Amino acid sequence: MTIKSVREATRDGATCEATLAAQAEKINRKETAAGKPFYELILRDATDSLTLRAWSDKPAFSACQKITPASFVEVSGNFSQGSFGLDAAHWTLESLAEEEITALLEGSLEQRAANEATYEVILKAVAQLQDPRLQQLCEQFLQQYGTRFRRAAAARSNHHARRGGLLDHTTRMMQSAQALLPVYPNLNGDLLIAGILFHDVGKLWETCPPAQGFGILPDLRGELMGHLSIGVEIVNALWRDLPKDDWEKLEPASEEVRLHLLHLIAAHHGQLEFGSPVLPKTPEAIALHLIDNMDARLEMFDEAYARGQESSPGIFEWSRPLAVSPVAPLRKIKKNE
Predict the structure, then answer these.
(1) Is residue 275 part of a domain?
(2) For the segment 53-65, what is each residue's pLDDT rounded down to a tens digit?
(3) Closest by CA position to 174, among listed 205, 130, 128, 140
(4) What is the C-alpha end-to-end distance of the chain, expressed in Å?
(5) Which positions ≥6 away from 32 have C-beta within 8 Å?
(6) Is residue 316 a part of any domain in this protein?
(7) Where is 73: in which H helix or E strand?
(8) Which helix or strand (DSSP H or E) is residue 74 part of?
(9) Do 249 and 266 have their domain in common?
(10) Tens digit of each residue's pLDDT (9 = 90 or more) over 21-55
(11) How many CB atoms are located within 10 Å of the residue 223 CB?
(12) The dihedral sign for the CA sequence 150, 152, 154, 158
């Protein structure tokens, strides 16, 4: 089972006897207030993360002494939701064999099929762009950075904070934009779609797991520059390398197209205090910001429901990213057959 599926199976006080495979992101040796040693093991797979504690009088304690961060393990135990969130009783820990690690990184057949379908949405959207400059730019990016893009996370926490999360986030944003374009026909659809693809490309360095792992580790480029600055840099670098022989007679002018695209990247956080060096100044820039924020916040609600405990029926505990106590959504009406 995946960490996410175990979390779902233990909702509403249920217990789940399960085995899951994951990567040991961190292994911290700590002590209780009474001086009793224990290990805090942070596990991550392609769906979620999980923190387990191995007490000194349990078999898992000695197993934690033998593994290192970034190693791949199999955890078996009786899982349930407790005061620390998802936890496990009587859990055991073993190292994975090489073929098991490969299978874990590749994902199940269902996961791989879902990822391919998601990526196909982006490829199709790029193929439908009418502006040859934006289309060539997007194609060059996917050709050069597609593999890294497909494994990047969209954040370290709060939303889409997982291997492949940026792909899911970008695809949903594109689908939302495509649904909105017929409603707002004055929007430049080519620019908006290209802006959605590029708005978070800096995350390929800021929040990208390694090829052989799930952990979101700090990267020097990402730490020093931030993903907005990196995104501007990447677009400019790709733009310089594109053949421009057939662009001279195109309208609007190519320099204008480049600047508008860079503005979408720079302004997509929407507010100066949230990191944007400039506020959204075009319809496409504000549309991108709102679509981005909508998808992120809806993902935060999903996370709050999946991870949070109900303080009262239908009312969940306080969510820091949302700054509210989420309320269970109204169920859809069931029509009589």
Answers:
(1) yes
(2) 998 888 889 889 8
(3) 128
(4) 35
(5) 38
(6) no
(7) strand 72-82
(8) strand 72-82
(9) yes
(10) 999 989 999 999 899 999 999 999 988 889 999 98
(11) 10
(12) positive
